[in-house]
Design a protein that fits this description.
Belongs to the protein N5-glutamine methyltransferase family. PrmC subfamily. Methylates the class 1 translation termination release factors RF1/PrfA and RF2/PrfB on the glutamine residue of the universally conserved GGQ motif. This is Release factor glutamine methyltransferase. This protein folds into two domains: 64 residues; 209 residues, 3-Layer(aba) Sandwich (Rossmann fold), CATH 3.40.50.150. The longest helix is centred in the middle third of the chain and has 16 residues. The protein is built from eleven helices and nine strands. Helices cover 40% and strands 19% of the residues.
Amino acid sequence: MNIKEILNKTEEYFKSRNISSPRLDAEVLLADLLDTERVKLYVKFDYPLTDEEINKYRKMVKKRAQGTPVSYLTKKKEFMSLEFHVEPGVLIPRPETEELVEKILDIVRGETDLSRKIVDVGTGSGAILVSLLYYLPDAKGIGIDISDQAIRVARDNIKKFDLSQRSGLINGDLLEPLLPKKAGEIDLVVSNPPYISSKEYENLDKDVKSEPEEALHAGKDGLDIYKRLIPQAKELLRENGLLALEIGDKQGKLIENLFSELDGWREFQLLKDGAGKDRFVFMRCGGGNS
């Protein structure tokens, strides 16, 4: 069987299993197996696969059909044009989070003092922290995660991009490891925390449910982490420091209500993602709410 034939068969099989991107997934898995770029498959359509390659590919295809995300099978995910190591047990970086990083970069490049000291809360694979440090060569940052496994994966990615000298990782709960000793010292706190409500979690696709629940689910209304994180960030940030959050698309007003109830914040901004959904919140530390 050649590349063209096995891709066509796999695409049809994935369609029958209601895989959302059947052709793309078939190609990504095969390219990973053959250690080549996906686009190069098209110039190798007549390449005959060995029995060993076919058997390995079929095992990957079976796992994908059962709901295992492609990135868990390939152990990698592209984010901000950088290739990150990921694995089961660690959240897979999302396109929406790329938008969060891009918005932060736009702001920071206009206010260079914001890029000096960065903290990424719930760092996971380290995608946000690594991307910010990679594109902000003068920045230093700390990634915090409650998961030992996430810290290990983030450390792998930090080493991959040679950022160990400008970064640190802490195994801990939100910003607690930095308080009170770093109070008022940080320029930017960023987080893509768990924000899925209990009802929403019950209805998630099986692909998403194969990712760690603790990185997704945040109580009845999805606000559990924000209610703890926002007050902690106020203590950690310097005057005019920036808090940047990814949120659920139905949580904008709820987060704004939290903002209005807390002193010490100003310049609340609710921004939309590329799909036109409420997705990001930015707020400044200092002064009264406005």
